[in-house]
């Protein structure tokens, strides 16, 4: 082993068993889940609770898990002068991602093996399997196919150590990680590249031993956060009543919230009827105080504030699109399309002849013209239409005579006409406006729970919401429709004022 690994091993022996276990798992490239962080935090807290202390009553501690300390065999990442490890084959038994059961992946023992395939063909699936038995800076779990069988992911990895015979290592999700020479193999993929690129390192090479220490430090910070959270919760529950720690007070204190405590208090002194009522209510009040969680209330307050802010922002979007000015602009765009369509129809009549097919110059015909133009100009190095003597029709593939070439020229003049350009522009603007109107969150913005939430802070706003959104929906449906049968019972100016008031009141609501 290297000096770094020797130093890490010697230093780890001075630590408690759980940090040594953490170092061992990190050296093996294992993924440290949130449940593992919780287990290590419990171990650290258990160590402190087991110390000698003047406990009022000895704390009850759960069973400690079996931790495995770091050993030299776990630091197999850099073996100087050791035989090389080569992966020979991966056989997917069943259950991993969407890979086919029994599908093998062979590696050439000499040279470089290239594996190619379409997206979803399984390349990443085999890489995830390798990460379970080898080591990677971007470890990830292998999950079963969500829409396939519920079999536990399982695979067999064949590897060769030096010139020895190939050996098989069977991996199954959920089993303890098996120590093997494969842990000297490093898996580098896109996820690992992201770790290298986004990490706060300024050196070109980071020895594996230092990588283990970096991950160890990061995990210790997570464990510290869990312990800090536990301490804050304990401080919230602390009581400092020294006068109740002796005599009758101690009896009451020990049985507070129970019938025994109430009996002791009644025997101590006579209580007035009001005091008896107040005393009987103490258990319920204590329960409420104990069950209350300031952190949870803070999260709930932030969620409510976010809901009201989002509602105000959505109402501003609606107000902007159904204001009197916006309604006038939308109706002008619709009218512009109708006017441009009339002018385009007049221009179309210029290309219609007695022998022309019905619909010549119409929308379908124009799409055919554009397709023929794209076909000729992109692949055949000709202009369209071609007015040369050897011009060929893109559809019938035959030469065009002079009359046909003249007609093509006339069609080209029609397609370049201002009327057609104006129609295209008007349609584009109208379609963009319709898309913006249809994107308004009118159907999903308001729920009964949200109305009830608003009413708890401002009943006036809650009463304005549903009528205002109903009016906005009628205006939206009118603007995106044909324009016929427009609703006569809505007042755009009054609606705009109602929405503005709602937004203003939502912005000033204070959530405790």
Tell me the overall shape: flat
Overall mean pLDDT = 78
List how many beta strands DSSP finds.
4
Structural class: mainly alpha
Overview of the molecule:
The protein has 17 helices and 4 strands. 54% of the residues lie in helices and 5% in strands. It has a 4-stranded antiparallel sheet with strand order 2-1-3-4, covered by helices on one side. The protein has helices at 3-12, 17-27, 34-49, 123-133, 190-198, 208-237, 247-254, 259-268, 273-291, 294-321, 324-348, 363-379, 402-415, 418-438, 448-457, 459-480, 492-507; strands spanning 85-94, 104-106, 154-161, 167-172. With 512 residues, the chain is mostly helical.
Summary?
The chain is mainly α. It has helices spanning 3-12, 17-27, 34-49, 123-133, 190-198, 208-237, 247-254, 259-268, 273-291, 294-321, 324-348, 363-379, 402-415, 418-438, 448-457, 459-480, 492-507; strands at 85-94, 104-106, 154-161, 167-172.
Structural descriptors:
512 residues, mainly alpha, 17 helices, 4 strands
Task: Indicate the topology.
Blueprint: H1 3-12, H2 17-27, H3 34-49, E1 85-94, E2 104-106, H4 123-133, E3 154-161, E4 167-172, H5 190-198, H6 208-237, H7 247-254, H8 259-268, H9 273-291, H10 294-321, H11 324-348, H12 363-379, H13 402-415, H14 418-438, H15 448-457, H16 459-480, H17 492-507
Helix pairs in contact: 2-6, 3-6, 7-8, 10-17, 11-14, 15-16, 16-17
């Amino acid at each position: 082993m290297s000096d770094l690994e020797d130093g890490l091993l010697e230093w780890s022996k001075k630590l408690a068993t759980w940090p040594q276990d953490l170092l061992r798992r990190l050296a093996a490239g294992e993924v440290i889940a949130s449940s593992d962080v919780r287990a290590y935090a419990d171990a650290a807290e258990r160590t402190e609770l087991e110390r000698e202390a003047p406990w009022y009553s000895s704390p009850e501690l759960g069973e400690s898990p079996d931790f495995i300390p770091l050993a030299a065999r776990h630091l197999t990442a850099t073996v100087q002068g050791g035989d090389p490890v080569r992966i020979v084959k991966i056989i997917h038994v069943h259950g991993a991602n969407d890979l086919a059961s029994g599908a093998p992946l062979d590696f050439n023992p000499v040279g470089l093996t290239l594996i190619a395939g379409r997206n979803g063909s399984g390349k990443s699936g085999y890489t995830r399997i390798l990460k379970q038995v080898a080591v990677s800076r971007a470890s990830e779990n292998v999950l079963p196919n969500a829409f396939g069988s519920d079999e536990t992911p399982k695979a067999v990895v064949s590897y060769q150590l030096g010139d020895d015979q190939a050996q098989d290592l069977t991996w199954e999700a959920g089993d303890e990680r098996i120590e093997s020479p494969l842990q000297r193999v490093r898996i580098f993929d896109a996820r690992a590249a992201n770790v290298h690129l986004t990490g706060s390192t300024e050196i070109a090479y980071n020895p594996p031993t230092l990588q283990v220490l970096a991950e160890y430090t990061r995990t210790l910070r997570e464990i510290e956060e869990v312990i800090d959270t536990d301490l804050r919760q304990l401080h919230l529950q602390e009581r400092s009543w020294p006068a109740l720690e002796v005599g009758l007070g101690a009896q009451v204190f020990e049985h507070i919230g129970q019938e025994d405590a109430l009996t002791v208090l009644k025997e101590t002194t006579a209580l007035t009827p009001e005091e008896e009522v107040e005393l009987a209510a103490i258990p319920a009040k204590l329960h409420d105080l104990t069950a209350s969680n300031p952190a949870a209330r803070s999260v709930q307050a932030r969620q409510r504030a976010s809901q009201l802010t989002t509602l105000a922002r959505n109402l501003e979007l609606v107000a902007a699109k159904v204001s009197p000015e916006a309604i006038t602009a939308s109706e002008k765009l619709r009218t512009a399309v109708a006017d441009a369509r009339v002018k385009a129809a007049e221009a179309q009549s210029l290309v219609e002849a007695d022998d022309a097919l019905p619909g010549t110059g119409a929308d379908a015909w124009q799409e055919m013209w554009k397709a023929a133009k794209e076909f000729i100009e992109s692949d055949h190095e000709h202009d369209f239409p071609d007015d040369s003597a050897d011009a060929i029709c893109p559809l019938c593939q035959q030469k065009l005579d002079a009359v046909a070439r003249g007609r093509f020229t006339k069609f080209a003049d029609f397609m370049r006409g201002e009327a057609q350009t104006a129609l295209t522009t008007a349609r584009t603007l109208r379609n963009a406006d319709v898309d913006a109107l249809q994107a308004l969150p009118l159907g999903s913005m308001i729920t009964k729970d949200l109305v009830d939430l608003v009413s708890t802070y401002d009943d006036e706003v809650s009463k304005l919401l549903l009528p205002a959104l109903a009016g906005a929906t009628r205006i939206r449906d009118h603007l995106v429709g044909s324009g016929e049968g427009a609703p006569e019972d809505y007042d755009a100016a009054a609606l705009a004022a109602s929405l503005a008031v709602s937004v203003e009141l939502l912005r000033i609501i204070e959530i405790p």
